[in-house]
Protein: UDP-4-amino-4, 6-dideoxy-N-acetyl-beta-L-altrosamine transaminase
Amino acid sequence: MIPYGRQNIEQADIDAVVEVLGSDFLTQGPQVPAFEEAIKSHCDVRHAVAVNSATSALHIACMALGLGLGDMLWTTPNTFVASANCARYCGADVDFVDIDPLTYNLSAEALADKLAVAERLGRLPKIIVVVHFSGQSCDMERIAQLAQKYGVRVIEDASHAIGATYQNTPVGRCQYSDICVFSFHPVKIVTTAEGGVATTQSETLAERMREARSHGITRDPSRMQGQTEGDWYYQQISLGYNYRMTELQAALGVAQMARLETFVAARNRLAERYDKQLATLPLILPGRQPQAVSAWHLYVVQIDDQRTDISRKALFEHCRANNIGVNVHYIPVHLQPYYQKLGFKAGDFPNAERYYQRAISIPLFAQLTEAEQGQVVAILSAGLS
Ligand SMILES: *Cc1c(COP(=O)(O)O)cnc(C)c1O
Structure:
């Protein structure tokens, strides 16, 4: 089976992890700061806080921005459930903004309309989580203008987008957001097995996130109540979690970050080949956001139902039966039973629902060979004819 995504592990990665196993620190040693440095340097950003998953990073990002009971967070329905769940962890409510049918990202136009209505109703969100779907940045300049106009904070869920740029600036620099989050799950572009990071330009937000990832504990005397009692002393000053990344994960991350540019270049090359080789099939190919260079986490095609009668289910099953490990991203979050119980229903976000009916993610990962790509194209053509 050619999978839709796969990690790239070389001897250098293995050596880095094995070295940590023989060292003094399996957690809370020098590798996590080294990994944070690698992220900061790539993103050209002041702070990076590494944690055990992007889900944790989204949670501490919401905590740092003060999201709480009765607050509202908006995100896109075309995402993994974690982008919405982070609000629920904080006791906040969730609503969604429909997608742009061209890029499958949260639509800045729909956002503008929904914010105007929410202001009239006195129900503005505190936070918007935008997701750079498939690795391509959202229209951040426009989104930031709207966020500023209505006093809303912005988190970028860039789980798909490490190595991407927007306006020639690396995603993760937080040029148009408060906090940006990356995932290092093995299907993503860079992996630490499990892991995530939150970047920010704000010292205050970074400090709050560092506190939240480790029980709400500080060892900094300037942040304590009263005096420190000695070098052993720490204080718990808020309620945090254990969301720490291990040294093994961080060492793997450092080794992987050294190859980020190679990974993204390979993904771009493969995506361009798919664009050419699939051009004549009855498929809708991924649209482009101006000013954005995608990191190409996913290559999603939609079945063009104007040009073929084949259903998504039939094409999916045909590919799987022929050893092409296609997948579907995403089942709209508002249609998950958990969110339906909160009141959402089919028809609420028609663009995301229509997209979902027709979408298939086809194999794309750094070491996918041209021969394998040829196989994917051949199986797709056969399935569509
Ligand atoms: C993978 C993913 C997450 C969750 O990442 P984890 O590191 O597995 O917690 C969140 N949002 C999006 C858009 C993702 O693709």
